[in-house]
Amino acid sequence: MILPLDRSTQQALFDLKRVLIVDDEEPIRRLLGYMLQTHGYETVLASDSREARTRLDEQPFALILCDVNMPGESGMDLIRNILSQHPHTAVIMVTGLDSSVLANAALDMGAFGYIVKPFESNEVMIDVANALRRRRLELENRLHRENLEDVVRTRTMALQQALEWLELREKELRLSREETIQRLAIAAEYRDSATAQHIHRMSHYCELLARKHGLSAEQCDLIRTASPMHDIGKIGTPDHVLLKPGKFTPEEFNVISQHAEIGYRILNGSDAEILKVAASIAWTHHERWDGNGYPRKLKGNAIPVEGRIAAIADSFDALTTQRIYKPAFPLDQAVELMTKHRGEHFDPELLDIFFASLNEITQIHDQYADQVPRTMIRES
Fold first, then answer.
1. How far apart are CA 185 and CA 190, in angstroms?
2. CA–CA distance from 53 to each of 56, 116, 232, 251 (Å)?
3. Domain boundaries, the chain
4. Is 171 marked active-site?
5. Which of 17, 171, 234, 326 is catalytic?
6. What dotted CATH number matches 7-144?
7. What is the pLDDT of residues 149-194, one digit of tens each?
8. Are the CB atoms for 64 and 89 separated by under 8 Å?
9. Which CATH number fits domain 190-367: 1.10.3210.10, 3.10.150.10, 1.10.10.10, 1.20.1250.20?
10. Would you say 128 and 98 are in contact if contact means Cβ atoms under 8 Å apart?
11. pTM of full prediction above 0.70
């Protein structure tokens, strides 16, 4: 693993002036030192591997000229260890043996060049210049990659933070939107005998049935969020009709039936998908599977699935909770009454799915129970 360069090492390597010469023959060390110094290089001499390691621990070098054959640890072994610990330093091997095998071994190990004794000054200077130029290019490329990685890392972090911020804002907006819808729905329900808990039960019943029916997660969420607006049209229903405890006259039923159309007109026309679904539910949740519902007498699959789902949820909640005109029916009785209208009032497939989930339905009812005694009773 190549570690990032510290500043002093970077400076030394880019200046390309400090060279370590390692050779057990003093005349060779001095000769190489003299050649390099006359061309502006700073040189440090070492007679063996141990001294070379000491010098490397003291300061960084741009280049090492190292003899192959030395007493004790060989130059090849020394360079192999040096390159593993100082990979940013260029190396040229120096030897008295003109061997292609040895030269290839040195190059394969990572050496930048191979000089055979006796050598010419020009030969040495050309090899040194080429090795340092190559090393500089490699270092510049590496530093460029590191800088690029830093930029990418920084921008990635910034993007992640932006996405997290957007997700948080989106969540806040979604919650705010849902709360607004629920509060508008509650405002409509306050004119009726239903309670705010009816809105929550309706929402979760619809989401449960949509999910069990196999609708997508997005569709389920839309239906869950939009269904509380199903009776928003009751805002336009007169109190003497809306709050009547007894049975409606035909004229009164005609008035109360208009809330579906009113709700549709209130919610329709928006580009927001949630309001489109809410408008559809408001308009169609009183349609019947057999075509005898209102306001348009739609039949079967001509009724949007969200309307068929809301019809089941709304009817079930009306039966199993106390209203101004009736007490809460026990669960078994509610199931029996709705089953009698399977295929008439309700989509038969959806009704079967709904009643196959009675345990979950009961949990929803209990969690959002009205604050009145004896609401949902399971009889044996």
1. 9
2. 5, 24, 85, 105
3. 7-144, 190-367
4. no
5. 234
6. 3.40.50.2300
7. 788 888 888 878 877 777 777 676 666 666 666 666 655 555 554 5
8. yes
9. 1.10.3210.10
10. no
11. no
